[in-house]
Amino acid sequence: MLTLTPVAGLVVAFLLSWAVTPLVLKLARRIGAIDKQSDTKIHAKDIPRLGGLAIASGFYVPVLALGLRVNLYQGMIYEEPRRVVALLGGGLAIIVLGVYDDLRGARAWQKLAVQVPVAVLAWWAGIRIGVTGDPAGHLLVLPGAVSLVATVVWVVVVVNALNLIDGLDGLASGIALQALLATAMCAWHRDDAALALFAICLSGAVGGFLVHNFHPASIFMGDSGSMFLGYVLAISTAWSSQKAATMVGVVLPVVALALPLLDTSMAIWRRMVTGRKVLSGDLEHIHHRLLARGWSHRRSVLTLYGVGLFFSLLSVALVYSSDSRLDWPLVGVALIAALAFARWLGYLKRDAGVGSALARRK
After folding, report:
1. CA distances (Å), 354 to each of 185, 246, 257, 361, in order?
2. Which listed residue, of 6, 50, 230, 284, carries a Cα 20 to 30 Å from 343's Cα?
3. Rounded mean pLDDT of 315-341?
4. Which domain holds residue 255?
């Protein structure tokens, strides 16, 4: 499968996203798509957003161009038209939602009104959480209704998890890039050409945008970017996990996206414990806790890159391992690492004052 096609897709996606981002920045300033500084924001000045448009252009242009050109991947893409339509079409719907949110602000019910239907579309197209296995190796097939609910919940959670972790310059884009490269490696290993090409092209697009988004960022991806990346990652990991008719099929997506999922679960937990609204904002996300320790912006981001890379490589190991007896030990390592990291951050004990400490630093 190693041909010039994925290399061309990666390079074109990177260059296009890198070149379009300054144009999107100017557009954002002109139409007022600005992320204004506030008490719940880290940045000390107003920053343009809508960066998701640059990422999307860097993704869709090479994918569609390579899909029209006669090559090894074209035939494999057309072998799964429903899945391709669900990924590309659903992604467009999420981008439109994100642009609306960046410009006018979307309420929770408005976001769900788009996120849930596109998740149902993906399930109908065959991208679903439905077949797995138990520790003894027995095949388990989830009933249709259970599979549908699990798939919708997965998509909605991941879409919003990427949104929540998008709190430092380059953090969400860097974590997404790692997960996308891991997805591409897994798809490559399983000869899933269509998924591999999609993941590779989006990796290039995110990389081109990250040049402008890394600290100090000149532009943010906004909800148009974070929700779009979350959607593609949710669909891609679910798609990839279907190739494994074992327990790996369920845990693989969770391991690959462990960092944003950990941050989201901790956010929900602490808000429920303190009686706050689950959707309310605060300054106690993972990146906030690192900053509250006195760490610099860049050090915090690079540290979380390292954590994300650990889990991404662990997900790749789950796929490449030829011995199924290693599955549970690897999953155990991921669970222990996640709990240890959460404890080190102070999530598993009462650690009040993080938000106020960070506010004082600002």
Report:
1. 38, 41, 25, 11
2. 230
3. 82
4. 4-361
